[in-house]
Specification:
about 350 residues, alpha+beta, four-stranded mixed beta sheet, three-stranded antiparallel beta sheet
């Protein structure tokens, strides 16, 4: 994630802010600039920003910003859709007449916007299912949509399952409740469970369909296994027997061992965790210069040096997780990065890196 500043007064602002606490200006994310901008009313519900690359442009507030106070993104004035490029991908929202659902919806959309920002930054194909959705004009068969649903107490009602099906990503609204999400994390013996993590995992399934299914299946199967094995049976076996004892030697998580598709989605999500965290550390100017030469070090900027981009990424990643976990322990918190990356897991991450870089190109 980039570090943002108010373009009116240069005060530090955050991705979720709607006002600058220093100068009081309204703020909005400008998706065509991939940046936050201060906003000044221009009449007829239009806003303008002094952002250096947006001074001649007009913006409207996303309808979920203007009416629901759920979003803080804007819509370029030439775009007829009342919703921003993130909100228009949401196909189903929870029943807002139910107490607590609006607050949960806000938390879910906030996490989803971080995902969408990453996908836009990576220049990955991003289309919705309706005409005009996303950045590619809409693709009913190959686009993505989100459904945010809550469990009901109706007799015989099945629980909402978080998952992906042909481009539709469903999230159980209960995941927005910190206590409930922690209960599920402990019940499933997971080291990590967050809203953003759910989104990164499920979008991984979507991009397997978009970027892998019709491409390098031989390379995929050589690393992840044959995805043609019975998926339902594999999950049933995983939940009945658990992960193999040696799973850490080959996978990024225990759940990744259940089926090659889940291995891909877990690895994809892990890659996005790494890339976003490293971008944030770089933007903050973080560097590590330990007193001992044998401890992990990290430069605030990474000059060109021999080696491929993925190798340089992992060389920066391990020092960052070292300091992250030590800081968390100093605050009495669990490790922020409770994972160990084996050589096979790193090779799978390298494969994801190659798929993303090819899509960017």
């Amino acid at each position: 994630m980039k570090i943002f500043h108010c373009d009116h007064c240069q005060n530090l602002v955050f991705f979720e802010n709607v006002h600058c606490v220093a100068c009081g200006h309204s703020l909005g994310f400008l998706p065509d600039q991939l940046d936050m901008g201060s906003l000044e009313a221009a009449g007829d519900r239009l806003w303008r920003s002094p952002h250096p690359d947006a001074r001649e442009r007009g913006y409207r507030l996303c309808a979920n910003y203007e009416r629901e106070n759920i979003c803080n993104w804007t819509v370029p004035e030439h775009d007829a859709d009342p919703l921003c490029v993130s909100c228009r991908l949401t196909k189903v929202i929870p029943d807002l007449t139910v107490a607590g659902n609006k607050e949960a919806w806000y938390r879910v959309e906030t996490a989803k916007r971080r995902l969408i920002f990453s996908l836009l930054t990576l220049r990955l194909p991003l289309e919705g299912k309706r005409t005009g959705d996303g950045t590619g004009g809409g693709n009913p068969a190959g686009g993505v949509a989100f459904e945010f649903l809550a469990d009901t107490a109706a007799p015989g009602a099945a629980p909402v399952l978080t998952g992906h099906n042909e481009g539709v990503i469903t999230l159980n609204l209960a995941e927005a409740d910190d206590a409930e999400r922690e209960r599920r994390r402990a019940q499933l013996h997971e080291p990590y469970r967050t809203l953003l993590g759910h989104f990164r995992h499920e979008i991984g399934h979507y991009y397997w369909d978009r970027l892998v299914a019709g491409g390098d299946l031989e390379g995929f199967r050589g690393l992840f296994g044959d995805e043609r094995k019975d998926y339902a049976a594999a999950l049933q076996k995983h939940y009945a027997d658990g992960a193999p004892a040696e799973w850490q030697q080959r996978f990024v998580s225990a759940y990744a061992s259940s089926h090659p598709w889940e291995d891909w989605a877990e690895t994809w999500a892990h890659y996005l965790h790494m890339r976003d965290s490293l971008e944030t550390a770089e933007a903050c100017g973080l560097s590590l210069k330990p007193r001992r030469s044998d401890e992990p070090s990290l430069r605030a900027s990474h000059p060109e040096k021999p080696g491929d981009a993925f190798t340089k990424m992992t060389e920066a990643w391990f020092p960052l997780t070292y300091v992250l976990n030590n800081l968390n322990r100093g605050l009495g918190l669990a490790d922020g990065y409770p994972f160990v990356l084996s050589t096979p897991a790193l090779e799978k991450l390298r494969f994801v890196h190659g798929i993303i870089e090819a899509a960017r190109a």
